[in-house]
Each structure stands twice: as C-alpha cells, then as structure tokens.
Amino acid sequence: MKFKRSITMEIAWCILALCFLALTAAMFFVNLNMFIVVVCLTIAVVLLFTVRVIQIRKSLATLITGIGPGMSVTQQTILSTIGLPVLVTDANRSVLWYNDSFRSMILNNKDYYLEDFARLVPGFDLEACAQPGGAEYLIQERHYKTFCAGSAPENAADILYVSFFVNDTALYNEAVQYRRTRPSILMFTVDSYDELASEIKESERAELMSEVYRAMEDFINTTNGIFLRTSTRNYVAIIEEQHIEKIIEKRFTILDTVRAIQSDPVPLTMSIGVGRGAKSMYENYILAKQALDMALGRGGDQAAIKTQNGYEFYGGTNRAVEKRNKVKSRIIASALGDLMRAAENVVVMGHKLSDLDSLGSAVGIARAAKICGSDAKIVFDSRNTLAKPLFDKLLLEGYGDLFITPSEAADYVEKDTLLVVVDCHVPSLVENAELLTMTDNLVIIDHHRKMVGYIEGAVLSYHEPYASSCCELVAELLQHLESSDNKPTKIEAEGMLAGIMLDSRSYSVRTGVRTFEAASYLRRLGASPTDAKMMFCSDLETYKHKSQLVSSAQIYRGCAVIVSDKLPESMRVVIPQAADELLNIEGIDASVVAVKFQNKVHISARSLGAYNVQLIMEYLGGGGHQTMAGVQLDDADLDFVKKLICEAIDNYLDKNMPKQTGKENGK
Questions:
Q1: Cα–Cα distance between 332 and 512 in angstroms, integer?
Q2: Does the structure show a pLDDT above 90 at 477?
Q3: pLDDT tens digits for 538-572?
Q4: How far is residue 34's CA from residue 26's CA, in Å, rounded to a whole number?
C-alpha cells in the first residue's frame, strides 16, 4: 500500500488553474455578472476541496493507524508493543506508520502521516541507516542510533522501510566527554639555551629561565593540565584534548610570548612537540618526542603536532639561530671516520637536479673517504644538473673515474657499502631512491629544514638547519678528519666554497660565524673566491633568457610570481637565477618562479628572510629552507599552477604573518 500527498496537491492545482482560466475568459469578454459568478464559484470550490482533502487525510491516517502499511496484525502488534521508537516509510521517506513510542519520543505526540521524514530530521538517509553500523541523528536534543531494514515485495515500488531508533544519549555524552578529556603530551625545549650559557652570565641566564618558567605556568594555567620542568631547558605538560584544541586554534601563543622576552645578544626561542590521538599515554609520549625532533630539525621556534595521520606545524616564521657547537661536529667526524674505515666501499649521493652545494659536498665526502682509506664513488646525473661548471672543471682535473650514473650505482652498492646522502633527506628527491634499501649503512648530512617523510633508519645523521649549506658542514668534518699528507685539493676546496657562496647568496643570507670559519678553512686549502665565483657566470644567451623571464614577473602580496613555459629546457639553470634576481627589486620580499618543461613544472622560491618560502613550498608538496626552497609538480595546466602558487602565498600570509597581509599589490 502506498500513499502520496502529491496526488491531492496535483488535483488542487488543476482546479485552481481551471478557475483562473475561467476568470480570465470572463474578464476578456468584460461581463461583470459572469465575473461575479465565477469568483463565487471559485471560492466555493476551493473551500469544498480543502474540507474534502482534510477528510481524506484523516481517513487515510485512520486507515494507516488501524491496519498498518501492508503489515499483518501480528507484525503491527509486535512493532507497537516494542519499547523502541519504530518508523515505517516508503522509498521516498514518506511517513506511513509509527508506534506509540515514536509518536511520543520523537514526534512530541503529533501526527505526521505522509510527510517526508527528512523535513522533520534533516539529513535522514535510509541507505545510511541500512549500513551495519547504522546512522546517528540528534533529535529533540537526544542522540539516536538508527538502524533500518527494507522489505522485498514482488513490486519494487511497494518496498517498505522499517527504522528502529535507539536512544543512546547517555552513552553518546560519555563518549564525547571521554574524547574531550583524553590526555595529550606537550614537550617544550628552549632552543637557544646552550648559546645563552656561553654568551651571558649565570645570574642573567637564571633570570631569563625564570621568566620562561613563569610564562609557561601562565600558559598552562589557562587549562587544567599538569606542568613539570624536567631539566633547565626542557618542560613537559599533560593537557586534556579540549584544551589542546583551543591552544591550536590560538596557534600556540606561548611561542610569541617566549620570543618577546629580551635576551640580547642571543634571541630566545622555544620548540614544542605535541603527541595526541594515540591509544595510550606512552604512545602519545613517543609521538611528542618525534614531533619535538621534527620541530628542532626544521630550525626550532615552532610547534609540531604528531598524530597517526602525519605532522602539522605552527610558527617557524623566524630565522633559525646559529648553534656554534664544534663538539658535535668533532663527534660526528669521528663516527663518520669509523664507519668509512669499516665499510667495504663508500657511495655518495646528492639530490636530483644537483647544484653546486650538492656536488661540492659530495666531492668533500669522497675526499673524506679517501683520507680514511676507502674507495668512493659519487652518484651524479650529468645530464640533469645545475653544477655543470664545477663538473666540467673536475673532469679536466682527472676526476672522471669518481662519478657514476644513477643507473650504474646499483652495481656499486652492497650490504657492507656505506651510503652517504648529502644536501637532501627525503627519499623521493635523491638521485636513486632504490639505493636507500640496498644497504644497512646509511649516513645523512643535510642543512635543509626537516620535511615530513624524511629518510629513516640512518646509522648517523648530521642534520643542522642552522648551517648555511651542506658544504659548510662537510668542511667542518674535514677539519677533524684530514691529515698532514692527505687534505682536500684546491679544486675540491673551490667546489665546496662555491656551494657555500651559492646557498648563502654570497654570504648575504643564513650566514654565521661557522660559515666564515668554514670559508677560511677552504681558503687556506688554496680555494680562490674568484675562481669559485666564476662557476656562477653565465653566457650571453643564458642572460637573455633570464632577463626575459624576470620581465614577465607579476607582484602578488609582496611576492614576485613568474609562471612560464617558454624557456628552453637547456636553460633550466635560469630558474633559480631569475628567482634570485627578483630579490634585487625594491618592494619584493620573496619570489616564486615556475617553468614547465615537457611533463614537469619546476618551481624555485627565494626570499631575503622576511618570508619563509619553505612553508610556501610545503603547501605545494615541496620544501627546502627559509630563504631557498622549491618543488616539482607533475604535468599541470599553467593557469592552475599560478592559482596554486597564489593560494600557497595566501595560506602562508594569513596563517603566519597576519600583520603583513596589507601587501595586496596585484591581488
């Protein structure tokens, strides 16, 4: 049995339409008497029809209530006496029958026969209710778990759905409260504590740390959490999930509070690792430790949240503080030397589309291997490189046997091989990712801020985001490994010096005391700054393409944006050069250059420190450093790429630099 309110409504509209047609005809002939008669007739018909529809609906309701929609007396009796609210609808969710419990608990003792139940409960879905777990609905401030089953009549149009509503409000409220009070672990560390110890008096440092502690107490006191100081620089807090959500919503204001504490000459910053959403307190503790390591690996002064689904980052907009700790470099050098001496051979690998920093540091590690008496090879793709000038000079100096192609590298890697990855820490970016699984001896030396999905399982990791370049790190290690009769050669030293000059933009960005110390060491080895600078020189044709690319730039919120597909693939080196060139223009704080070659879009981003281009590139799936980052996108429409770049800039500025969003040039 199936009833539809639409049939009666169609009859009503037909009668009204006929009446209005008659009125129109009467007016057409300008017959006043006829017009009056038609108006009276229309009113009478409408009143009669309305009364009749009410009577019909009452009769239908009585019929449905009395015999049920196609149900036997036994079925109706069972559904009527059951304690749960029960609803019977057709496939269109029209209300056909319900028991007394449903009428009193859900309908407030009113009748809604033939109504669409989705109007009473928005979002009501029969298919969702038919799933094994049912569906959840909030009705009259009560929570119901709804289960549904359909009949299978011969005529599919007559199918009936029986829905059972289970009131689990108390259990639901307990579950909500349980989730809101789940404990999360926050681990805090003062990034610049060691630098404070060496730069200021003990009494001044104690005062600063007391200020930090008071700021931490005020921060935690806004919650009902537990706060403990585990050492002079480390803190741990246990906070309920409901308060963590508020802290995240306010974007960890404690970072700004600590940063505002005056601590000349060393700026005071803090890193935070958060573990949440795990099954146990211990698992959250492990997640918090991993998150803190990630925050420190990305330069500090930020919060990282580790969940089961990945990482989330907050802060990290300021420049990293240089950590001048030569003890660590000496320990790393000693451990690296031991690994090289124990290995059967050494294979060094940088990132795809290698640059002067990648190749220069690889050459330096190869020299370290020779100092330790190990045979070394460098995995290098000479067809796709931005370091062609250095590579050509090495070939002229007789270094040809040192290099192997990525396809040949598998023949040189065995279980006892020491694989050293330089200037990179992400598997998808290295020259040959398969090599990472071919040996258990893996060393990582990198200066980029740590990205999600980094290489795991390294026996030794020298990851210093405070360094200007990977060549700076390698130069420090070589100082502890070299002997009087075995030192880096002049060309090797110039390669590392060129790498430092490239990533520090000729000592103008991310340059610290250790940078100049490394450069001085390379200079003592015979490296000529003039010869190193010559590796950056370009021919007239390259300069023309760079100029054309720069001239097409558009300004968007303080960033110069270039999106093009008109650059020859042989001029790929122009992309980062154009990004650097744009920073010399007044009013430009950052630059993003995207050029499409065949099925890849290559994007380079640069800044002078005001913008953190690493965060902008991470939005696109890439990464890098605060002032130098990039990404490669698979085949994509250039208009879409430009829109994506603008979205990344918006996302960065709106989240991290709200005070600077007034730079709307070009928006």
A1: 20
A2: yes
A3: 788 888 989 999 999 999 998 999 999 888 888 88
A4: 6
Q: Residue 478: is its pLDDT beyond 50?
A: yes
Spatial CB neighbours of 667, under 8 Å, sequence gap ≥ 6: 556, 557
Output the CATH code of domain 541-660: 3.10.310.30
The correct CATH number of 326-534 out of 3.40.50.720, 1.10.150.130, 3.50.50.60, 3.90.1640.10 is 3.90.1640.10
Residues facing residue 137 across a β-bridge: 144
**Distance from C-alpha of 58 to C-alpha of 111, rounded to nearest angstrom:** 10
Exposed, middle or buried: residue 385 (CB in 10 Å: 0-12, 13-18, 19+)?
buried
Burial of 289 (0-12, 13-18, 19+ CB in 10 A): middle
What is the DSSP-derived secondary structure letter of residue 128? Answer: H
Burial 579-608 (b: 16+ CB within 10 A, else e): bbbbbeeeebbbbbbbbbbeeebbbbbbbe
Percent of the chain at pLDDT above 70?
84
Compute the mean pLDDT over every residue in the chain, rounded to the nearest whole number: 84
**Topology, domain 74-176:** Beta-Lactamase (3.30.450)
Using H for helix, E for strand and C for coil, what is the string for 443-489?
A: EEEECCCCCCCCCCCCCEEEECCCCCCHHHHHHHHHHHHCECCECCC
pLDDT, tens digit, for every residue of 334-386?
999 999 999 999 999 999 889 999 999 999 999 999 999 999 999 999 988 88
Pairing relation of β-strands 441-446 and 310-315? unpaired
Q: How is residue 150 written in tokens?
A: 């359909």
Q: What is the pLDDT of residues 407-434, one digit of tens each?
A: 999 999 999 999 999 999 989 889 999 9
CATH code, residues 184-315: 3.30.70.270
Using a 10 angstrom Cβ sphere, with 0-12 exposed, 13-18 middle and 19 or more buried, the burial of residue 501 is: buried
| Helix runs in 620-660, H state only | 638-656
In terms of Cβ atoms closer than 10 Å to its own Cβ (0-12, 13-18, 19+), residue 370 is: middle
Overall average pLDDT of the 112-127 stretch: 83
What value, to the nearest 5°, has the Cα angle with vertex 579 and ends 575 and 585? 145
What is the C-alpha separation between 366 and 138, in angstroms, rounded?
67
In angstroms and rounded to an integer, the radius of gyration of the C-alpha atoms of the chain is 36
Tally the C-alpha atoms within 13 A of residue 62's C-alpha that lie toward its C-beta.
6
In this model, does residue 463 exceed pLDDT 70? yes
Average pLDDT of the segment spanning 226-247: 92
- C-beta of residue 365 within 8 angstroms of C-beta of residue 473: no
Domain ranges of the chain: 5-67, 74-176, 184-315, 326-534, 541-660
Cα-Cα-Cα-Cα dihedral sign, residues 408, 410, 414, 416 = positive
